[in-house]
Amino acid sequence: MTNEQPLEQEQGEAIKAVETIFVNEFTNGVLDPNKPMLGPLRDGGTIIANTAPGCWGPMLTPEIRGGHEVTKPVYIEGAEVGDALVIKIKSIQVTSIATASGTDEALSDRFIGDPFIKVKCPGCGKLHPQTKVQGIGKQAIRCAICDTETAPFAITNGYTMAFHHNEKLGVTVGKEGARKIALEANSYMRIPENSKQNPVVSLAPADLVGVLARMRPFLGQLGTVPSKAMPDSHNAGDFGVALIGAPHEFIVTAEELAEHKTDGHMDINRVRQGATIICPVKVDGGGVYVGDMHAMQGDGEIAGHTTDVSGIVQLQVSVLKKVAIDGPIILPNEDDLPYTAKPFTKEEKRLARELAEEYGLKQLEEAFPISVVGTGADLNIATENAVQRAAALFDLSVEEMKNRITLTGGVEVGRLPGVVTATCQVPKSLLKQAKIFKPVKQQYD
């Protein structure tokens, strides 16, 4: 599918690709391949983005149609359907001073089919109404037309967290601190000026008080535009299941979801500074977008939400020609790899050679680690998806892939209910065959 990106100036001259693009614009929560993209960006160029908080803010804002508020996609020069994009995360800086989060409950009288997508005011019945923040507390988000409380979600157990200026830790505050932050919500959250979201700290939750948490910021959303319009939070195999047979305009079949999604919504805490992500290109130009930065998160995001923050992200993007992948591949920082997947030291290699010689083995594999993302309705389906993607990538049987993952890596949970990574060490010869050896070598050699 070719998107309708306007790549020519009025005079008919092609727009020259730029080396660096600064992004401070956002979607309305929908990733649409037929909408114009920013750019074009030169192959190997840099994206610097001011990202808006994900999850809770957009979830409290009926105007936003997808559950998140990600940056407008960037067109990458030379990226064509069937290629891949290598995205190196050069830096992540949290700009929020505080945020709020917690477990959620969807309020059934305030949406049709999906509370992330089709919100209605329970008072006047208007779909996707504009809202206002009136005061602070649970009833603060109100319809701008009829003044009815309108947010489609409620926090069932929540907290407000303040961050230390050194960006190393956060502390959940009490009612007094939460009130102070709520009264100057945009200032504390540093919400970008082009964002439409209502700040979650306006609700002033304070059920969890005095908890210390270490900061390790990462990107919950980083990827490329799907080849069919879909809500941003649903661009994954677990959230996307809600689109199958849905009672709204983003309805898809199971086959369409599998074909068009790019799994950009991962919530995998290893997608952080220093990591490299290889993403599929399913529309010309790729359409790189980013958002949903989190200050910290344990594996699984078991609460359904974590600390959404504003931040500044720097990405370097390169094109891999004719590398047709179905979903993302992560090259994590070495510290984030399972113990069994970490690159071998010189001493370990020496010992392995000695052992091999003892048994008459003349050659050992030279291997490097990779993590293949899998998604699905639950963790079993997501794991099966990751293993099948890895086997297809390297032209191996599923059985051999399972053995390699078991011996030299592992399966790790990114997000419940269904995002995982299958990590293992892969021989150099197979990486070359799959045409991804260069970025892997650059990450680990």
Commentary on this structure:
This protein has 9 helices and 20 strands. The chain has 445 residues and is of the alpha+beta class. Strand 19 and strand 20 form a beta hairpin. Helix 6 packs across helix 7. InterPro entries: FmdA_AmdA (IPR004304). Pfam families: FmdA_AmdA.
Using DSSP, what is the number of strands?
20
Largest sheet: 12 strands, mixed
Distance between the termini: 36 Å
Q: Label the overall shape.
A: globular
Low-confidence stretches: 1-12
- Which structural class is indicated by helix and strand composition? alpha+beta
H/E element sequence: EEEHEEEEEEEHHEEEHEEEEHEHHEEHH
Beta-strand residue fraction: 25-35%
What's the average pLDDT? 96
Helix content: 10-25%
* Rg over alpha carbons: 22 Å
**Distinct helical segment count:** 9
In short:
With 445 residues, the chain is an alpha+beta fold. Helix content is 18%, strand content 29%.
SSE blueprint:
Layout lengths: L17 E6 L6 E2 L6 E14 L4 H4 L14 E3 L7 E11 L3 E9 L24 E3 L7 E3 L9 E11 L5 E4 L2 H9 L1 H5 L22 E3 L3 E7 L5 E2 L22 H7 L15 E5 L5 E9 L16 E10 L8 E3 L14 H13 L8 E9 L3 H16 L3 H11 L1 E6 L3 E9 H6 L3 H8 L1
Parallel strand pairs: 1-3, 3-4
Antiparallel strand pairs: 2-13, 3-16, 4-15, 5-14, 5-16, 6-9, 7-8, 9-10, 10-11, 12-15, 14-17, 17-18, 18-20, 19-20
Helix pairs in contact: 6-7
Protein name: Acetamidase/formamidase family protein
Organism: Lysinibacillus louembei
Pfam families: FmdA_AmdA (PF03069)
